[in-house]
Design a protein that fits this description.
About 35% of the residues lie in helices and about 20% in strands. It is elongated, with a radius of gyration of 18 Å. The structure holds 2'-O-acetyl adenosine-5-diphosphoribose. The site of 2'-O-acetyl adenosine-5-diphosphoribose (OAD) has 26 residues, from loops.
């Protein structure tokens, strides 16, 4: 059961906020069929991230690295955004929210129509050379081809041990520091530095997540539930 009193409170906050920023994680996409990382069905419960999602894996264990990302890329082929993604796009269009910052690399926010999306962990839908950084085709990556410079091809995502892309990071920080309201959806907030972003705002903070853990501590409002279902409930209050 979604707490209707909390939904009403959030409705009021959304109406009065001049700048609202959304921050999403893998839990935003699970209702579209994309697994998250740390739930019982998440990637990191069956695969060791050190073996597949690090610079070390890319440079020294490429077949394992390649298998992991090919699996994730192929799994995205029949995936579409859900109503929650569409609501966020609609809210941006209606001026209810300003922008979305996401740790997700699946591109579902943009596919749903969100325009101002800061991809803090990059995009799995773009391929580039690890050495010369030149972009390449998805086919070339899936066929395990090399770049013309001889470098290894990789998705344009952030691996453990790499810096976040500076432009989306700086922009997300800028927007959050000026926000009246930051709504965090579907993330365990386990991963640095994105987990530092909510505390950068002087505005109100809201945490919407399926599992409410210690990571919910410090938020002004905590709403337990599934991202899509909660967003549908909130959107209904605007009708
Ligand atoms: P996690 O898997 O750590 O957390 C996802 C959170 O979403 C969990 O707390 C779930 O309980 C919750 N959740 C799952 N389904 C949900 C739903 N339908 N509605 C609401 N909540 C739901 O994923 P992230 O926090 O996004 O980075 O992980 C952050 C980063 O860790 C990822 O970007 C990735 C990973 O390692 C890299 O690979 C660099």
């Amino acid at each position: 059961m979604i707490d209707s009193a909390k939904v009403s409170t959030l409705h009021e906050w959304l109406k009065t906020s001049k700048q609202t920023v959304i921050l999403t994680g893998a839990g935003m996409s699970t209702e579209s069929g994309v697994p998250d990382f740390r739930s019982s069905t998440g990637w990191w419960t069956k695969t060791d991230p050190q073996k597949v999602a690090t610079v070390e894996a890319l440079e020294h264990h490429y077949p394992l690295f390649h298998e992991f990302y090919s699996l994730r890329i192929n799994a995205l082929k029949n995936i579409v955004p859900h109503e929650g993604h569409e609501i966020l796009a609609l809210w941006e269009n209606q001026g209810i929210i300003r922008s979305v910052a996401t740790q997700n690399v699946d591109g579902l926010h943009q596919q749903a129509g969100s325009k101002d999306v800061k991809e803090l962990h990059g995009s799995i839908r773009k391929i580039r050379c690890h050495s010369c950084k030149k972009f390449a085709s998805m086919e070339a990556f899936l066929n395990m081809e090399k770049c013309e410079c001889g470098g290894k091809l990789r998705p344009n995502v952030v691996l453990f041990g790499e810096m976040l892309p500076q432009e989306p990071w700086i922009n997300a920080m800028y927007n959050i520091q000026r926000a009246d309201l930051v709504i965090v959806i579907g993330t365990s907030l386990e991963v640095y530095p994105v987990n530092q972003l909510p505390s950068e705002t002087k505005g109100k903070t809201v945490y919407i997540n399926l599992d409410i853990s210690n990571n919910a501590i410090g938020f002004d409002l905590v709403l337990q539930g599934k991202a899509k279902e909660v967003l549908v409930e909130i959107n209904n209050t605007f009708k």
